[in-house]
Write a structure and sequence with these properties.
It contains 17 helices and 38 strands. It is α+β, with helices and mostly antiparallel strands and about 750 residues long. The chain has a domain of about 270 residues: Beta-galactosidase, Chain A, domain 5, CATH 2.70.98.10.
Length: about 750
């Protein structure tokens, strides 16, 4: 959850403006030494292609062990680096683990070099030095000058096709390097197989199969050049296999049209003139080379780079205009940067002919929906998918249909845990597809078979061999001997079970409701009333004796400690408050969390938590506590929610190089900011309620898919006016600490009246 780069938007926007260019970025992409967990580059909303620079090639392993430096390159790009090794076509946005980085391309001039070289000497390989002063990142567009070769590199994209434009500054022999060994979180045997066909002197197709986070991932491509290359060749660093057949009859190193191996780097030679542009269209498919070529022909049938760029940016303008705000320049920058991040993932994972590769590795057809991948559900169920239910309901319905397709293709009959390119990488805890499905069904967003979806949720929740579910069902908790994350899993299962109960209640499945509403109270089994913390239990029902509520190591939690996880009962904050001493004592526990000081030893236990992402002991940069500031609403001191929400937003989100206090995790950190800056937050997805906080904006308009508009006005807004004095909804005073989903999607007008002192 270390701090990482923000894309800065310089947006001059009036709430009344009818013509607003939301993608007018004027500052380059930025980052910090500690992160680099999201990427600059060219993509369209939810696009399959994320075309972005890589700034180094760091191996996942070093001397047979995990290489800690690789963590800095989760997205391939690190702001502090001085060189670029090339531009690849697939990335993950803000994750704390990684994969992808497929099909790296790099233009060079002069001596042909087929190795990237080392960062300390950019001329040692095909990499190039660069400067941020010559770098521009906009939504749908990226540009950088490659200083060593004096080449201007520009990128844009459609959903399935990346488009490159390289402008050469001098007349010389030029090369396009095509590195099929490169990847993110790479290691020696990650490339399982690579195949390339040179169709003619401007068209190349092929595929690459890799192992890793997704262990059976195959990506097909089609690459077309705007100019015919005069020569081409390849270097295979893995040509010493025990058996190579009879391919030795051919010289495969130069101008040979059919290439296969594990460690292949190719080059294409051109004679270029001063100022000449060479363009590349690079299409992806999960199904076949033919589909990749069809994607290219369907999405970019010409060579007009500016048209593709303009179309990409118009798509971003359309999506970003779903919410229009008036606020200070800093808040606008933070807000639209966050909104941009929320529309990157999940990604479309389907070809123009509706085909996609399924979890079973067979070809399927998405009938009546767009298939999606990249579901970082442990993160995004909290507020990203609830945000989609408001402003992207059709997409979110399709995302759930994609989860159901995953379920139906699964031999385990489980909904996705972390869906990743026709794989489940099984990362993190809980079964939070259930939360996303429940929230959509309860809000009437899901346009599929609700009974089938409920059964998929039940089957997933009853899968006894997965992550201690059997013990959880039998004992009501997971013994610490059985799992290193026994407590967090129990807490998250209890919440997910409550979500299943809500679906069952809506569908009048009384027996299912009773079963899962009972299971949803299992959080109490890990609560120790003597210490006031959630603690690991042994198989005999006794609490584990060695316990440190500040420690993140061997305490039963994933990416957090007991101080943060002890507040994880989002589905029943009132019961949690009662167990922790009632409305008088509960806020004192929250006060302590936000005001304590963590020792330096706390940070030695984990690589993804740093002091910058923490307020007191509250870890905003990791998701389990994202709802905690709103829990004061279940006490007699709700104004403290307003104070803490404003403090978190101001401290953890800034328009500068270290602007985000943690991994964005496919949009979850950003979605928190979007909701909180508008003045409300989904504490418990699966409920129709949003908890009231403290808005940062002056005005907002949510332009909803149903044609309705929901307006927010903030009266007496000021940096020191943190506290809500009064709220009206459609002209009537709101006498509760929440608004409902129906209040918003029905259209209406919410007005906050703010002041500098708590309204007690």
């Amino acid at each position: 959850m270390k701090k990482h780069w923000f894309i800065l938007l310089s947006i001059q926007i009036s709430i009344a403006s009818a013509q607003t260019n939301f993608v007018n970025y004027v500052k380059p992409i930025i980052g910090t030494e500690k992160m680099g967990h999201t990427y600059p580059g060219a993509t369209v909303p939810f696009g399959a292609v994320q075309l972005s620079p890589e700034t180094d090639t760091v191996s996942y392993e070093l001397n047979g062990k995990y290489n800690a430096d690789v963590y800095k390159y989760c997205a391939g790009y690190k702001y502090e680096d001085k060189t670029i090794v090339g531009f690849s076509h697939t990335h993950l946005s803000g994750t704390g683990h990684s994969d992808l980085g497929d099909f790296l391309i790099m233009p060079t001039q002069g001596k042909l070099q087929l190795h990237p070289g080392i960062a300390s000497d950019s001329k040692s390989g095909y990499r190039s030095s660069f400067s941020h002063t010559n770098e521009i990142s906009e939504a749908g567009y990226y540009k950088v000058k490659l200083d060593d070769h004096q080449i201007l590199a520009e990128m844009t994209s459609t959903s399935r096709v990346g488009m490159h434009q390289y402008t050469f500054s001098k007349s010389y022999e030029s090369h396009i390097i095509f590195d099929l060994t490169s990847g993110i979180y790479n290691y020696d045997k990650k490339n399982v197989w690579t195949f390339i066909r040179v169709i003619n002197d401007s068209l190349v197709t092929g595929y690459r199969q890799t192992s890793g986070w997704a262990r059976t991932r195959t990506v097909y491509f089609a690459m077309s050049f705007s100019k015919r290359f005069k020569n081409y060749g390849q270097q295979n660093e893995d040509d010493k296999t025990a058996y190579r057949g009879f391919w030795g009859k051919f010289d495969q190193s130069k101008n040979f049209p059919e290439i296969a191996g594990k460690k292949i780097r190719m080059y294409f030679d051109f004679d270029t003139e001063e100022g000449e542009k060479i363009k590349i269209k690079f299409a992806l498919s999960s199904v076949s080379q033919a589909n990749a070529l069809e994607n290219m022909q369907a999405e970019i049938s010409h060579w007009d780079f500016e048209t593709v760029k303009n179309n990409a940016q118009q798509q971003w303008n359309t999506e970003l205009s779903k919410i229009k705000i008036d606020a200070s320049d800093e808040i606008k920058t933070n807000f639209y940067t966050a909104l941009y991040h929320t529309f990157i993932n999940p990604t479309e994972y389907v070809d123009v002919n509706h085909e996609y590769k399924g979890l079973d590795q067979n070809t399927h057809k998405a009938d009546g929906f767009i298939n999606y991948s990249t579901f970082s559900l442990w993160d995004t169920y909290r507020s990203l998918h609830p945000l989609f239910n408001l402003i992207q309901p059709t997409r979110n319905s399709d995302m759930i249909k994609s989860m159901m397709a995953h379920y139906n293709q699964s031999t385990l009959q489980m909904l996705p845990i972390w869906s990743h390119h026709a794989n489940d990488n099984w990362c993190m805890s809980g079964y939070h597809s259930v939360s996303v499905i429940a929230d959509a069904i309860l809000k009437n967003v899901y346009k599929g078979d609700e009974h089938e979806a409920l059964q998929a949720c039940i089957n997933t929740a009853n899968h006894k061999i997965y992550e201690g579910i059997g013990e959880y069902m039998n004992l009501g908790f997971i013994p610490s001997e059985k799992s290193g994350i026994s407590v967090s899993n129990t807490l998250e299962y209890a919440y997910d079970d409550w979500c299943i109960a809500q679906i069952a209640k809506k569908l009048n499945k009384t027996d299912v409701y009773e079963t899962f509403i009972k299971r949803s109270s299992n959080w109490q089994n890990n609560y120790n009333p003597i210490t006031g913390f959630m603690q690991p239990k042994l198989s005999n029902g006794l609490f584990k004796s060695a316990f440190d509520p500040l420690s993140t190591s061997n305490q039963g939690f994933i990416e957090g400690n007991s101080w943060n996880y002890s507040f994880f009962v989002p589905h029943n904050p009132a019961a949690l408050a009662e167990r922790m001493g009632g409305k008088q004592k509960f806020p004192l526990r929250l006060d302590t969390l936000f005001s304590m000081h963590l020792p330096d030893s706390f940070f030695a236990e984990t690589e993804d938590i740093t002091r910058e992402g923490i307020i007191g002991g509250y870890v905003h940069g990791n998701e389990p506590a994202h709802h905690v500031a709103y829990l004061y609403n279940w006490t007699n001191e709700p104004w403290k929610t307003q104070y803490q929400v404003r403090k978190i937003a101001n401290m953890q989100y800034k328009p500068k190089p270290d602007g985000l206090g943690g991994n964005d995790d496919c949009g979850q950190m950003s979605a928190w900011y979007i909701f909180s800056s508008m003045g409300f937050y989904p504490v418990s997805p699966g409920s129709n309620d949003f908890a009231i906080g403290s808005p940062l904006i002056n005005k907002a308009e949510l332009n909803l898919e149903n044609g309705k508009t929901f307006k927010i006005d903030v009266v007496n807004q000021h940096a020191k006016h943190v506290y809500v004095q009064k709220i009206t909804l459609n002209g009537k005073v709101l006498n509760s600490l929440n608004i409902t989903y129906n209040d918003i999607v029905s259209g209406g007008h919410l007005i906050f009246y703010m002041g500098s002192h708590p309204k007690k």
